[in-house]
Amino acid sequence: MMAKSSTEIVLDIKPYDQTTNLGELAEKVFKTVCFEGLSWNSDYTISPIAFGLKKLVVKGTISGNLVNIDDLMDEINYMKGSDDSDIVHSVDLASFRRI
């Protein structure tokens, strides 16, 4: 019997503008983006991009083949702010590693 494989992912989440609170965005991702087989690492990093804009870097682990990465990234990309405005400009898969 084969052991279930897991995949560690790292996502770069770029906001629409520099007024987006990336700490709040991280908490929203961790609380609202839920898929069977996905567990988020509660740590996140905020890294500079350019011209005062920063990106949010989040990590998670996927058990087996239960989560479609495109669906996961779409779920984050279509997040809305409290005033129903777009808050995420793009989501990039920075790392995908089988463990």
UniProtKB/TrEMBL annotation:
Gene3D superfamilies according to UniProt: 3.30.70.60
Gene Ontology molecular functions: guanyl-nucleotide exchange factor activity; translation elongation factor activity
GO cellular component: cytosol; eukaryotic translation elongation factor 1 complex
SUPFAM superfamilies tied to this protein: eEF-1beta-like (SSF54984)
Domain Translation elongation factor EF1B beta/delta subunit guanine nucleotide exchange: 6-99
InterPro entries tied to this protein: eEF-1beta-like_sf, EF1B_bsu/dsu, EF1B_bsu/dsu_GNE, Transl_elong_EF1B/ribsomal_bS6
Keywords from the UniProt entry: Elongation factor, Protein biosynthesis
Entry's transmembrane regions: none
PANTHER family: EF-HAND AND COILED-COIL DOMAIN-CONTAINING FAMILY MEMBER (PTHR11595), ELONGATION FACTOR 1-BETA (PTHR11595:SF21)
Family to which this protein belongs: Belongs to the EF-1-beta/EF-1-delta family.
Name of this protein: Translation elongation factor EF1B beta/delta subunit guanine nucleotide exchange domain-containing protein
Source organism of the structure: Blepharisma stoltei
Taxonomic path: Eukaryota, Sar, Alveolata, Ciliophora, Postciliodesmatophora
